[in-house]
Fold this protein.
Amino acid sequence: MATSIQPLFDRLLVKRSAGATKTKSGLFLPDSATEKPSQGKVVAAGGGRVVDGETRPLIVKTGDTVMFGKYAGTEISVDGEEHLMLREDDVLGIIDN
């Protein structure tokens, strides 16, 4: 998937996963009652972190599904869709599919 934004250095562009729209018992939840999911798919990744003049590659790669903190990153709109721009340090883990 090509995007119009390429993250720099240790930043990641993440598309949040779809949140739950109904409970286990089958009740539908209004938008105001649902929390934003704290996981998503990496759409684009920067080239790596610069440390002491050397670029260290990122552990997280494009296509990985990651888990991140509730208040991590900055929400932005890319090509009319909501995404999250965050640093690799904000990623809590990579989810195996």
